[in-house]
Amino acid sequence: MSDINPDNFDHFNIPLGFLDQLIEFTGTDDSSRGYILAYVDQDGNPMVLSRFSTQIIEMGLRKALEKYLIQAEEEGLGPTPPGRDDLSDLDGTSDFDDDLN
Question: Domain locations in the chain?
Fold first, then answer.
């Protein structure tokens, strides 16, 4: 294994097929699918990918992400342990939904 040099790897991109599967795993039908994916690439650059079936899904996910970031800032959250969801207070609805009703 000492022959492997990480600096010689080609630049990696998440395969489109994986992202297509990810969108299929979200929502219940084509009108309720979406994701926002944040990660760090192999060069240490922050990357954000997103895909939504509708604008309302985009707004809901953005609101959930906003809540998460505010909560993380207030609580000084570090890495999330496996199986623990720091958004446990989010039940699939958002304050945005309440504003619409």
Answer: 1-53, 55-101
